[in-house]
Amino acid sequence: MDKNALLQHFDEHGFVVVEDIFDAVHDLQPLIDDYRLLLNELATLWFAAGLIPATYSDLPFEQQFARIITESKHAWYQHFDFSLPQTKITPETPIHLSQPIFKLMTHPRLLDLVEWFVGSEILVSPVHHVRIKPPEKLASHKQGESTLTVKTEWHQDQGVVLPEADETNILTIWMPIVDATVENGCLCVIPGTHKTGLITHCPGVQTHIPEKLLPGQPIALPMKKGSALFMHRRTIHSSLSNHSSSIRWSFDLRYQPIGMPTGRPDFPTFIARSQNQPENVVTDYRVWQQLWWDTRHALIERDKPKFQRWDSDAPSCA
Ligand SMILES: O=C(O)CCC(=O)C(=O)O
Ligand SMILES: [Fe+2]
User: Fold this and answer.
1) Which atom of ligand 1 approaches the CA of 185 most closely?
2) SS3 201
3) Per-residue model confidence (pLDDT) at position 144
4) pLDDT of residue 145
């Protein structure tokens, strides 16, 4: 798709999928290997501590992953994420800040595309996650673990940051690390909803838009590994449950112009590309790592930092 067609699709529908951005061998395999290593390190520790019955190292990676996380008697998810949780941060809160993740976030082909939407001054927003969804049939007793490990309710990404960022052009990028299908829990979007305003979200286990307030017909968006979804901050979206027998995992990133609020002021940002201040572009993943470690330290002493704008008194949430 050329630039004009791509931007036109985005303006009209509020999202666009671009295929073959990431090469399976050069771009995604190092990331998968990084997570395989992490999984094996954790499995060894958890097995020794009696938290899992086996390390399952003879299984293919995605099945090993599914078995370990669904059998773990342990809060497993935060060990894999590259962002901090929104509550209860301690000096031991795990966060996985690896070079392959940094390389993904600063991938030149991805940033070339991001530049079309955000402009040449590109800041990496701290609202980013790995989502690891075990098969629902294995995972039913673990639903409370994290909202990032189960199906996602309807929302607008603008609805899960603070109002300070309402005018910030925050672009969501979502990319699957395995082919995302209707069976394993791909994303769903309601085309054109970026043209509506911000809709009331209700608090709950997940901050969500109640079904009765959904304007329009959703479509499922199956996507190939190597592709990425570019999505407007007001496009309403959700994801399906994972009914397959393997994990469905994905990364979601956010980019925005430098100098605008992120909507999560307690979390760190870095400059990924800039013509105006090239000297401030972060190219070493250890700088990014240190930013998050410093943030974790700063948040230990604090009461719960504020991330949500909604309260449950809204009439439509009743
Ligand atoms: O992967 C999912 O389940 C939801 C992703 C999402 O909501 C996002 O990336 O903004
Ligand atoms: Fe989202």
Assistant:
1) 3
2) coil
3) 47
4) 64
Please check whether residue 234 is in contact with residue 185, taking contact to mean a CB–CB distance below 8 angstroms.
Answer: no
- Classified by CATH at the fold level, domain 3-303 comes out as Jelly Rolls (2.60.120)
How far apart are the C-alpha atoms of 308 and 208, rounded to whole Å? Answer: 12
Ligand 1 pocket mutation, candidates 189, 230, 250, 254, criterion most atoms within 8 A of CB: 250
Residue 173 pLDDT exceeds 70: yes
Distance CA 174, CA 109 (A): 15
Spans of all domains in the chain: 3-303
Rounded to the nearest 10 degrees, how much is the dihedral formed by the CA atoms of 143, 33, 180, 13? 100
Record the tokens describing residue 5, joined without a space: 């067609």
pLDDT (tens digit, 9 = 90+) per residue, 73-107? 778 889 999 999 888 899 999 999 999 999 999 99
Other Cβ atoms less than 10 A from the Cβ of 127: the count is 22
Ligand whose nearest atom lies closest to the CA of 148: 1
pTM higher than 0.90: yes
Q: Is ligand 1 within 6 A of the CB of residue 269?
A: no
User: What average pLDDT does range 258-281 have in this prediction?
Assistant: 97
CA distance 67 to 196: 42
Say if CB 193 and CB 15 are below 8 A apart. no
**What's the rounded Cα separation, in Å, for the pair 147 and 61?**
23
pLDDT higher than threshold 60 for residue 142? no
Per DSSP, 258 falls in state: T
Q: Are 251 and 81 in contact (CB under 8 A)?
A: no
